[in-house]
Structure formats: structure tokens, C-alpha cells
Design goal:
mainly alpha; Death Domain, Fas; CARD; elongated; single chain; inflammasome; Apoptosis-associated speck-like protein containing a CARD; two-stranded antiparallel sheet
Length: 198
Amino acid sequence: MPKTVGDTLIGVLDDLGRTKLKRFRHKLCERKQEPTIRRGDVENLDPIDLTDLLTRTFTEDGALDVAIEVLRAIDCNDGAKELTDFKKAQESWVTSGAAKGSAAGPNNMIKDKHFVDHYRTALIERVSQLDPILDRLLERGVITSNAYSDVRAEKTRQNRMRELLDVPLKASGSKGKDVLLDILMEQEPYLISELMGE
């Protein structure tokens, strides 16, 4: 079973040791970019809980970027390199088409926009099988369990889809959108073939 983002982050944070982990938490709170993390939220968190906080706050891809940034800021370049290498390996795995059932990224572009962005309105209005789509996105690590709950909390199907596209999927970038498109092809084949035929 391949290592997940969470496994990799936990391993790197665990390897920091107590003092460097404390410096990591301190520097994380000094970040000015949104979303920010308050000192009280990270105080005394172990690597597992800290990883959970990072992925909930920034999504998995964003958590990697933030962790790399903070590790470099505290001169833990080995940890930053390990995460950078992991991220590159993940990206090449997806874009090479090696991901099981994954459509190649460049083929999902229409007029310099990803298919999901290009047909955003149609997807919001017409996707009907949202629960199994959410289940598969969670299973494949594109969204976190908190994002899953946030999307499910929306009252209408359209608001759920809007929430999915606006928050966790936007943060996951084209890789996450490629996975969503694969899932849509399985769950909503007639809708996707109709949109692709336009």
C-alpha cells in the first residue's frame, strides 16, 4: 500500500524530535498567509494530531506545501526535501497516467481551463449522485473527513456540489480535479459524455 500524505507528514514530523517539533509549531503560527493557525490550536500537539490539523486546515496538498515552507524556515532541510520528493513522486505518478483509472491531466483541459472548471455551472446544476462521489473522493484522499462532513452538511444537492468545488477541490488543484473527473465518468457517465460532446 503506497504511503499517504498523512503517513509521510507524520514520519517527517516524528523525526524532528521534541525541540524541533516545538520550533515547527511556533513558526507555523507565525505564518501570515491565510488561513492562519493560532498558537493555542497547536500547543502540545504530537505529530499525528499536528498532521490532522494541517490537512484539515490546508487540505493534503496545501499541508505539504505549508510543512515544506515551515521546515525550511527552521532549517530542517532534510525533512523539507523528503516532503518535496514525496510531492514530486505523487505528481509524476498521477500525470504519467500510472494512477489506476486516472485520466491524463492535459487531456482534461478545455481552453486553458480544467474540464471541472469549464463546466462548473453544469456540474453544480446536474450532478445527482453526490454521496458516492464524496465517498470515493474521501477514499482516494482528495478530500479530508472534515471537508467531507462540511460538504454533506449543506442543505441542497446544488449547495453541496458548490461547496465541494469551491473549497476542498479548489485546494487540491488539477490533480484532485482529475480524480473527480474520473469518478464523474463512473457515476455520471451520460452527463459527462454529453458535456464532452459539446
